[in-house]
Write a structure and sequence with these properties.
Blueprint: H1 5-15, H2 23-26, E1 34-38, E2 41-44, E3 49-52, H3 55-58, H4 67-77, H5 91-103, E4 108-114, H6 117-134, E5 142-146, H7 155-159, H8 164-167, E6 177-180, H9 191-210, E7 214-219, E8 223-224, E9 230-231, H10 236-246, E10 250-254, E11 278-281, E12 293-298, H11 299-303, H12 325-340, H13 343-358, E13 367-373, E14 376-384, E15 389-390, H14 397-408, E16 410-411, E17 418-421, H15 429-449
Parallel strand pairs: 3-16, 5-6, 5-7, 7-10, 10-11
Antiparallel strand pairs: 1-2, 2-3, 4-12, 8-9, 11-12, 13-14, 14-15, 14-17
Bound molecules: pyridoxal-5'-phosphate.
C-alpha cells in the first residue's frame, strides 16, 4: 500500500534538497514521486505510468526491475553486501575488472573503481597528473578541456568543466585549464568541416606551444552530452588522439555518458578506433542499477605507479564503497545481457527506426537541428529557423516541452533549448514509436501551440 501522496510531498518539501534544481520553483509545483519501475516505464505513487525517456539521466540500459539483474543482486546479497577494496579484494570486483578489460579498447588493462562519473573523472585527472610526477617530469601540470564540457560536479571535474552557468561561480576554487572549441557544426559558419578544422587547429597550436606544461586532454568522445548532445564530425576524435600522442600529452576519454552501447558501439571511442590512455565509465555500467564507476588505465600509466614502497609512488586515492560487490555483481549481469540480447546490434537498428520517426520533425518551423548518435538524441529548438536565433533562456522552452511530455506520459529533462531523448537501450520499436510520438507532440505544442507563457 502506498504512502499518501500528500504526506510524501510535504516531507519532500520539508527535507529534500534536489540536485540541479531551483527549489523555489520546485516547491511551487506538485512533485513527481516515483514508486516503482517496470521495463521502460516508471510509476508514481498515484499509479500514473511514464516512459523513461531519458533513462533516468542517461543510465538505464535494460529497463527497470529486470529479473536477471534483480537475481544477480539477490545472489550477491546473500554472500556479502560490501567489503572494502583497500588492500583486499572481492569476487565480483575481480570478475568485472576482467570483463571490462575484455570489452574496452585494446591496451586498457587496469581498472580502478569508484562510485560516480565525477569521482571517476577526478581519478583520471589525478592519475594523469601523478603519472608525470612519478617519472620526474615536473612541468606537465595543466589540462586541456573543451568548450561547454561537462565532466561532473566535484571540484576537479568542475575545473575541467566549461559550462559557465554551472561552473563560473566556482572559478576561484578551480585549477586553470586550457579550453579548445568542441566542434558544433550547427553553430559554426564552416559547418562540420569548418568546425572540425577549428578544433584541430586550436589543439595543434596549443600543443605546439605548450605541450611541455600539459598533462592531459579530457574529452567527451563523439557526443558532448550536457552541452546539448552535440555530435563530433567524423574523424575528429581520432585526429585529436593522434595529436596528443605526437605531443606526449595523455588522452582521457570520459565515456560516462557515451559508454555501454549508447552510441551503437560499446564505447564511443570504438567508433573511431581510438585507445585512450585513461577512460572513465559510469552511468550505464550497472545497467542503471547502482552507483559504480571505473577509470581504466593502460599498463604504461600503471607502471609509473608501480615501485618500491619507499619511493612513495602509490596512488593515494580511494572511496569507502570502491569496488562494491553488489554494484559489481549487477554490472557483470548487465554485461552478460549485452551479449545474450545482442544489445549493440539492437541499438543500431533502433537508432535507424528513431531517426526515421523523428525525420518529419525537422520540417517544423522551430526545430533547428535533430542530432543523433545511436540512442542519444538532442533536438535543438530555435526561435528563428533561418537565422538560427535561439530562444531566450528565460523562455524556458526546453523545460516547457519536457513538462508537456510528462503530461503526455514521458519523462525527460532538457538541456537549455535542447530536448533530450535517451531511451533505455532495451526499448522496443513499439515503445519507441509511442515515445517519439509524445516527443513530437510536446515540441509542436510548445513551439507552435502557444498556449503557455
Ligand atoms: N561525465 C559525463 C560526460 C557526464 O555526462 C556525466 C554526467 O552526466 C558525468 C561525467 C558525471 O557523472 P556522475 O553524475 O555520475 O557524477
Amino acid at each position: 500500500m502506498s504512502k499518501s501522496y500528500e504526506h510524501l510531498a510535504a516531507l519532500n518539501k520539508s527535507h529534500v534538497w534536489h540536485p540541479f534544481t531551483q527549489m523555489k520553483d520546485y516547491n511551487n509545483e506538485d512533485p513527481l514521486i516515483i514508486e516503482r519501475g517496470e521495463g521502460v516505464k516508471l510509476y508514481d505513487v498515484q499509479g500514473r505510468a511514464y516512459f523513461d525517456g531519458f533513462s533516468s539521466v542517461w543510465l538505464n540500459v535494460h529497463g527497470h526491475n529486470v529479473p536477471e539483474l534483480n537475481q544477480a543482486l539477490t545472489n550477491q546479497l546473500e554472500l556479502v553486501a560490501h567489503s572494502t577494496l583497500l588492500g583486499m579484494a572481492n569476487i565480483p570486483a575481480i570478475e568485472l575488472a576482467e570483463r571490462l578489460v575484455q570489452i574496452a579498447p585494446d591496451g586498457l588493462n587496469k581498472v580502478f573503481y569508484s562510485d560516480s562519473g565525477a569521482t571517476g573523472v577526478e581519478i583520471a585527472i589525478k592519475m594523469a597528473f601523478q603519472y608525470w610526477h612519478n617519472q620526474g617530469v615536473r612541468g606537465k601540470k595543466s589540462f586541456i578541456t573543451m568548450n561547454q564540457a561537462y565532466h561532473g560536479d566535484t571540484v576537479g571535474a568542475v575545473s575541467v568543466g566549461a559550462i559557465p552557468l554551472y561552473h563560473e561561480v566556482f572559478r576561484p576554487l578551480l585549477f586553470q585549464s586550457h579550453t579548445i572549441p568542441y566542434p558544433y557544426p550547427y553553430r559554426h559558419d564552416g559547418g562540420a568541416e569548418g568546425a572540425k578544422e577549428a578544433t584541430l587547429n586550436a589543439l595543434r597550436k596549443l600543443l605546439e606551444a605548450r605541450a611541455d606544461e600539459i598533462a592531459a586532454l579530457i574529452v567527451e568522445p563523439i557526443v558532448q552530452g550536457a552541452s546539448g548532445i552535440v555530435v563530433m564530425p567524423e574523424g575528429c576524435l581520432h585526429e585529436m588522439a593522434e595529436l596528443c600522442r605526437k605531443h606526449d600529452v595523455l588522452f582521457i576519454a570520459d565515456e560516462v555518458a557515451t559508454g555501454f552501447g549508447r552510441t551503437g558501439e560499446m564505447f564511443a571511442c570504438d567508433l573511431e578506433r581510438v585507445t585512450p590512455d585513461l577512460m572513465v565509465v559510469g552511468k550505464g555500467l550497472t545497467g542503471g542499477y547502482l552507483p559504480v564507476a571505473a577509470t581504466l588505465a593502460t599498463d604504461e600509466i600503471y607502471s609509473a605507479f608501480y615501485a618500491d614502497y619507499q619511493e612513495q609512488k602509490t596512488f593515494f586515492h580511494g572511496h569507502s564503497y570502491t569496488g562494491n560487490p553488489l554494484g559489481c555483481a549487477v554490472a557483470l549481469a548487465s554485461l552478460g545481457l549485452f551479449e545474450e540480447r545482442s544489445m549493440l546490434e539492437g541499438v543500431r537498428t533502433k537508432a535507424l527506426f528513431v531517426q526515421k520517426r523523428l525525420a518529419p520533425l525537422s520540417d517544423r518551423p522551430h526545430v533547428g537541428e535533430i542530432r543523433q548518435k545511436g540512442l542519444m538524441i538532442g533536438i535543438e529548438l530555435v526561435r528563428d529557423k533561418d537565422s538560427r536565433e535561439p530562444y531566450e533562456w528565460g523562455e524556458r522552452i526546453g523545460v516547457r516541452a519536457s513538462q508537456r511530455a510528462r503530461e503526455l506520459g514521458m519523462l525527460t529533462r532538457p538541456l537549455g533549448n535542447v530536448i533530450v531523448f535517451i531511451p533505455p537501450l532495451a526499448a522496443t520499436e513499439a515503445e519507441l514509436e509511442e515515445m517519439t510520438e509524445i516527443l513530437a507532440k510536446s515540441i509542436v505544442h510548445v513551439t507552435e501551440g502557444g498556449v503557455r507563457s
